[in-house]
UniProtKB/TrEMBL annotation:
The keyword S-adenosyl-L-methionine applies. The lineage of its organism: Bacteria, Bacillati, Actinomycetota, Actinomycetes, Kitasatosporales. This is Radical SAM core domain-containing protein. It comes from the Bacteria. GO terms for molecular function: catalytic activity; iron-sulfur cluster binding; metal ion binding. InterPro entries: Aldolase_TIM, Radical_SAM_PqqE_MftC-like, rSAM, rSAM_sf. Keywords: Iron, Iron-sulfur, Metal-binding, S-adenosyl-L-methionine. Residues 6-217 form the Radical SAM core domain. It comes from Kitasatospora sp. CMC57. Transmembrane segments: none annotated. Signal peptide: none annotated.
């Protein structure tokens, strides 16, 4: 259905939000009130969607998210199926809090573990949860011992922009390969915390200069909205690319092609879990009608 409507024939990666439930209530979480919702993929629907995406769109990789994916009781089953049966590259994005036992279980089927961190020490814990910083570092250490490659993601806010470089250096010490920096978008919980927004766009320029001068060994990937002029309005789903990098599905089955549309209920496509197929539900406010541009990433 996606191909018929958009011309897209290949989608390299599926971002699969397994459930809304989370053991954190981060100040900037784009899910907001949905963290209280019970929507989730049962394991059958999850593996069915993975199979559909591989067979129909040549999907090569999956990133499992939530909520918090490690509180999903069937995580091992989904990870094992994705790797052993479908041959996908498997990544998990997690808060890293008390995941050691389950991480050890799934490590043989896991290609990459990405932890979410919002700064160093107390800065991170204030935004996320007390003890979450040390929990994430513990997860990184264990993953390294288990032979799983690691990285981190950070949403840049007014409270942590000065800690990007210190966090990158700390991650290097723990053997992480990559730090991915996201621009804060005022949806979900972030809409309730405008103080987190950066009002001086020149701060982004200074951040990028610091990263370029630091000569880091870790790879830093930056959302191009983290620049004074913002990212160019390109990569709109309404265009006619034959291949896109990723598509994201939420626990209800709503599919989103642009990161800038995530959390905004502007879905043009839905995965029908019972029928195991994708359907098109156009509207005046969907991401195709509005030509929402995708996020552009670049290496520093």
């Amino acid at each position: 259905m996606i191909g018929e409507v958009t011309g897209i024939r290949k989608i390299r990666m599926l971002y699969l939000q397994l459930l809304y439930r989370c053991n954190f209530e981060c100040l900037h979480c784009f899910h907001g009130e949905r963290l209280k919702h019970a929507d989730a993929f049962n394991p059958e629907a999850a593996v069915n969607l993975l199979t559909l995406m591989r067979d129909q769109y040549g999907t090569e990789a999956v990133t499992l998210l939530g909520g918090e994916p490690f509180v999903y009781k069937d995580l091992t089953r989904v990870v094992r199926y994705a790797k052993q049966e479908l041959g996908l590259q498997v990544e998990i994005c997690t808060n890293g809090y008390r995941i050691e036992r389950r991480l050890t279980e799934i490590a043989p089927y896991l290609d990459f573990l990405r932890v979410s961190l919002e700064g160093v020490g107390a800065t991170n814990d204030h935004i996320r949860r007390f003890g979450s910083y040390q929990g994430a570092l513990s997860a990184l250490s264990l993953a390294r011992e288990l032979g799983v490659r690691t990285g981190a993601t950070m949403t840049v806010t007014s409270r942590n922009i000065d800690e990007v470089l210190p966090l990158a250096r700390t991650l290097q010490e723990f053997g992480a390969r990559q730090l991915k920096l996201h621009c804060l978008r005022p949806v979900g919980n972030a809409a309730l915390h405008p103080e987190l927004l950066i009002t001086d766009p020149t701060a982004y320029g200074r951040l990028r200069e610091q990263l370029q001068e630091a000569d880091l060994a870790i790879e830093v990937i930056v959302d191009e909205d983290l620049s004074e002029g913002g990212a160019p309005e390109i990569c709109a789903p309404a265009g006619s690319p034959r291949e896109i990098e990723r598509i994201e599905v939420d626990p209800r089955g709503a599919l989103t092609m642009s990161c800038k549309a995530v959390g905004k209920d502007s879905h043009a496509f839905w995965y029908d879990k019972l029928a195991d197929h994708i359907i098109h539900r156009p509207s005046a406010s969907d991401e195709l009608t509005l030509a929402v541009p995708d996020v552009v990433y670049a290496r520093v």
